[in-house]
Amino acid sequence: MDPTPPATVFDAPRPAFYEGKWAEPDLSNGSLRNWLVRKQRFFLQRLPRRTQTRVLDLGCGGGWKVFTRAGRVTGIDYSRSSLWAAARIYDGAAMADLATLPFREGAFDTVVSSDVLGHVPLDQKSQVVREIHRVLKPGGRTLHFIEAEGADPLTTFAKSDPDLYRQRIIGPEGHEGIESPRATFQRFRDAGFRPVVETSAYRLLMYPGRVPQMYDNEYAERSLPLRGLVALTRALTFVKPLEAASNVAAAALMEITDRVLPESWGGGVLVEYLK
Predict the structure, then answer these.
(1) Which of 59, 62, 75, 258 is most enclosed, with most CB atoms within 10 A?
(2) Do 185 and 269 contact (CB within 8 A), yes or no?
(3) Is residue 3 scored above 50 in pLDDT?
(4) Do the domain assignments include residue 33?
């Protein structure tokens, strides 16, 4: 029996924050951008290419075509509009809480997520990881890009004002459950997973458009160097061709910095585990 029927949406309590966010389906499936962006390339390189395996996409948003490479995908999310969009490219879509997945034990061969588990509150995170373990079959595989809280100088500066940090950095994107890369790795190990890949990414650096989004506020007013960085990145994103070129340059530089800067500086982690 399939884990969930095609295009089915189950009702469940959900935070209003997520309704309508990230609801557009991503139809890219091996595009140049997929290969340039490290967290996207990770899934292209690591996902098995099969057709009949069962895949669960946690916090699916509008869905991502790349995940269908690995099999028949069921997406779960809090947003009704996201689920209707995901149902157009996935075999099923369900409204559900990550901490109480409505699927039987061992229902899936693969569980994936991207930019999702950082939204899970810290007091629920271990339960969510246990649920991933429960719904995976023995020998099953789980792959994730997970937002992390780096110990880099910029994040350390931002955290020096806890209230402002929550207002400007955590709140706008709902990242209430970010933690250090090492803490994330340990949660999966504690749940019984065997690590295949554990690495941090985006160590200090970010794409130019992210800088003003996060720091063009009270933070820039308090720091002259940060004010200059905000001005520079705004200039780089003012014209689309220049923004595209700066993103490519940033991606190339990240390939270097992610290998030489401390792991603890990572703003995210790329992980693969086996049950």
Answers:
(1) 75
(2) yes
(3) no
(4) yes
